[in-house]
Design brief:
The protein is α/β, with parallel strands linked by helices. The protein is built from 13 helices and 12 strands. It has a 10-stranded mixed β-sheet. Strands 7-11 form a two-stranded antiparallel sheet.
Length: 347
Amino acid sequence: MQNPLSVFQSARKAQRARKKGMAHCKYLPFRLVVETSSVCNLRCPMCPVSLSSKFTRGKMKFSTFKKVVDESASFVSEINLSHRGEPLLNGHLPNMIAYAHEKRIATRLSTNATRLTEELALRLIQSGLSSITFSVDGLKSGAYERIRVGARFDEVMDNIVNFLKMKRRLRSRTPTTTIEALDLWEAPVDEDRARRFLTNFRSLPPVRLVIRAPHNWGGAIHLNRGSDYLASKRFIYGGCPLIWNTMLVLSDGSVALCTQDWHNDNPVGNIHDFTLREMWNGWTLTFVRQLLATRQHHQIEVCSRCSLLWREGSSRLRTVGGKPPVHDRIVRLGRTRSYLVDMRCST
């Protein structure tokens, strides 16, 4: 794993390159998103998996993952193992994590936890996984099961609690554990509900709860935020840092433009045909960087529809129906609201 100073320097290089509008980068990406599975067992309305059959679903082969890790170990500091599907459906996942860990690369994982058995929990903890995020939208049974179609709230909560108990039993500090809930119009989360939810983890290892704003996956889905909410906001162009610091490898080895190009409509290449180094400064990525740097994002279909390119232009407190929206009632950290909670000393 690269030391913190090296990671910081890589991030600074990427930031400077974006601000200068560099199309050809003299550095290599410090982060990878590797799609270990494009198959999912749930059908959530805010996820394009439930709406689209345009892309081929599959699971990454271990040999493909090894090729990605071997090639990137000298310049990548972390790998996110989640993208369009549920990563726990890939039976090679613990071995993939362990292989990356041997190469000193940090690994991050986001899961719906429906398939998190006790045996799998043990293997994940022992594999060297750096960070795990559990998706629990709504934070209570009714709201959760309306959003996470096909999952059962009580079963998922039992899986998460058992995972934390296993972590405590092994006296392991890793992986760091986060629970994430989307701030959906259909299932809003307020501060009181968030704090009540966290009482489920008393006397267990620390858990961080993050309330995250949803996005539209490059226009692949429609965000039902409510016209009165949107009308009260002023958005300005914020640019896209991903194209300057991250590469996405799909389950079949294809390299996509970015994580928002859900259907890989702008293919960069394939790991079996080209190296990551070649693709990083290949024609596709350099051309897109040039367009984004000159605010010509409208010439790229996925970018023209991407909600992540825009941010709120006003910090004034807006109201909807006489009440402030949820994300203004909760501590804000960029696009997310975070509670870092250690319940071990709670009564």
